[in-house]
Design goal:
Layout (H helix, E strand, L loop, with lengths): L2 E6 L4 E5 L8 E8 L1 H11 L6 H11 L6 E3 L3 E5 L2 H8 L7 E2 L6 H15 L9 E6 L4 E8 L7 E8 L8 H14 L6 E6 L4 H9 L3 E6 L5 E6 L1
Parallel strand pairs: 6-8, 9-10
Antiparallel strand pairs: 1-2, 1-3, 4-5, 5-7, 7-8, 8-9, 10-12, 11-12
């Protein structure tokens, strides 16, 4: 049987029987032949199995100024630069594709805090805001970050997910990764996260990430969760 090499709009390649209708979203490359010769051709053409948007996002990120990047099984936690935070504060996308189209109100507030800290000269690289980028399609699904630089061996983390990304375990995965990174830093032994009493979803995220509820509340009356070494 003669086969054809086909390609989709994600620049992914596949083998397809010649003379049959192409699947939706795919087009012929013009290369036909035996099964093995077509497979060999695909191996030559497709050296990176990631979809095109993911490859582009990685290439663009490599051209940006150096930032902290953490990787979990399904997410990239990418540090936000102050100039990007200023864009996000105004509802911009910082050149990235967001699940749901634009940053949430909560994410914009966090970006504004980073922008103010940078303007006041108190922003410490690595201890600001991180975007949660889904590895499968390079879309931003939320944000997570610190309330400020560490103090007295402790750092506080806050987070927010876009509505469409909730309930999929992304927040738990990201919180576990960022908390683990935090506790690996010199002089730190505690990570704190807070939430309201009625925010059961956030409480679940913290508990699944290994945080324990403390008996005391903070000055604002919020529940306090803590993870220690």
């Amino acid at each position: 049987m003669t086969h054809a090499v086909i390609v989709n709009d994600q620049q992914q390649y596949a083998l397809w029987p010649s003379g049959t209708g192409l699947p939706e979203g795919w087009q012929a490359t013009g290369w036909t032949g035996g099964e093995q010769s077509c497979l060999d051709r695909i191996a030559e053409l497709w050296k990176d199995g990631r979809p095109a948007p993911v490859r582009r996002a990685v290439a663009e990120d490599s051209a940006r100024p150096a930032v902290q990047l953490l990787v979990s099984p399904r997410l990239w936690l990418r540090e936000v630069l102050p100039e990007e935070a200023a864009q996000i504060t105004e509802g911009g996308t910082a050149g990235l594709e967001w699940l749901g189209g634009v940053p949430s109100a909560e994410t914009r507030i966090a970006a504004k805090m980073l922008t103010r800290a940078a303007g006041a000269g108190v922003h410490v690289p690595g201890w600001g805001m991180y975007l949660l980028i889904r590895a499968e399609d390079a879309r931003v699904v939320g944000a997570m970050g610190f309330h400020g630089p560490p103090a007295d061996g402790s750092a506080e983390i806050g987070f927010d997910l876009t509505e469409k990304a909730r309930g999929l375990g992304y927040a738990t995965e990201a919180l576990g990764e960022l908390a683990s990174w935090t506790l690996r830093q010199s002089g730190l032994d505690t990570v704190v996260a807070t939430t309201t009493e009625d925010n059961v979803a956030s409480q679940g995220v913290m508990e699944r990430a290994g945080f324990e509820l403390r008996p005391e509340r903070n000055e604002e009356g919020l529940l306090v969760y803590r993870l220690t070494r």
